[in-house]
Specification:
With about 450 residues, the chain is an alpha/beta fold. The chain folds into two domains: about 1-45, no CATH class; about 65-340, TIM Barrel (Alpha-Beta Barrel), CATH 3.20.20.240. About 45% of the residues lie in helices and about 10% in strands. The chain has helices at about 1-5, 15-25, 30-35, 75-90, 105-110, 130-140, 150-160, 165-175, 190-195, 195-215, 230-250, 275-290, 310-325, 340-365, 365-375, 375-390, 440-450, and strands spanning about 35, 45, 65-75, 95-100, 120-125, 145-150, 185, 225-230, 260-265, 295.
Amino acid sequence: MAKELFKEFEPVSTKQWKQQIQFELKGADYNETLVWESPEGIKVKPFYHSDENDFNFETSGSDGFNIVQNIYVHDVKKSNERAIDSLQRGAESIRFTIESEAILLDELMMNLPKENVTYYFNLLFLSAEFVKKVGAFSSQNDYKIVVLQDVVGQLAKDGNWFTSLEKDFSELNLISGLNIPFLSCKTDLYQNAGANIVQQLAYSLAHVNEYFNRIENISSPITLEVSVGTNYFFEIAKLRALRLLFNALAKEYNHDFDCHIIVTPTKRNKTLYDYNVNMLRTTTECMSAILGGANMICNLAYDSIYHKDNEFGDRIARNQLLVLKHESYFNEVNNPSDGAYYIESLTEQLAEKALNLFKDIEANCGFITQLIEGTIQRKINESAQKEQELFDTGKEVLLGTNKYPNKNDKMANDLELFPFVKTNPRKTLITPIIERRLAEKLEQERLSSEKLS
């Protein structure tokens, strides 16, 4: 097709493009003017050409994405009603977050559809007995249920195991024999805490590797719960690199399943003031997730950082994905980013840098050891501080917050949730990895001035 369309034009080499660009720059330095470096150390060029790289255009994503609705199960009846309503309004999967094994599965799943719907059970506790009950319920009632259980993620986020390293992995090994998908890696924590993309990929890979090393039989797909930010093309490449790295690692353990990626937009760049801009941010982030090959996407409501779950916020978040899927036709092309020289180059560089960091982690006794020693937390904090400085100096812009803020915007009387990092002094085995938004300090200052005025 390319020859038919462009046969009248002579091919232009990289050298010819550079010569023309240098002419147009009128003496300005090409590298200083047009090449910029990302926080990951990747130099981004103004153009990419096929004669510079031997690109490998392999398919890299899923066969389309499903829309996921998050539901925190506190009141079982209300959670059931909300799940039914969400599925009727466009959701295609439900992710229940369950805090107690005393929950009645019959009540939670009452009248929920069985065909073409996946139900995720995100468990905030560890119990092989409960997972066994879920597996039996799923089998008897023809529901497709995936359990999301992540003891390493529990340690990283909470600072403590559910019980202890030995007992937690002993319980997971019992669960692995129950013939139900059960394993999750909640790697969204690293992005939300401020890790750069190479760190996110390397820590995700090392996180997964702990399970491959410590669980005897992983005979079902592993779910990776990932967060994406606003660096549009880099985030597309990140998801592609993640799948590439996972499959390379899984092959070493004779694990024949592709990973299953659930993506949620980051919290890190979401803002309290001028909150409607959050919708623009989540839209481009969901686009990156789709083009990067996510299997499932759960959008973040524009008001999620300061409002309790509400019907309007949920509906807008779902509708963003429905528009992308059914009106923008993002779901119609399989792996649309394949063959884009820029994205292929980013994917390759991110994967290579992440693999080197992963190897360094493994050479230094692995991910859990480095969490216990505090190395991972320190590295994430260093990256987060660099990004925070860019935001504080205005070099990283969040419109409506540190650029063009509306001074008349008032939020002090609209807070249903505490939107900042919560402190909970207690004894922990390790320093937990803390999620923190870029705008928190500035927002706290604005809220204080509101109360004084």
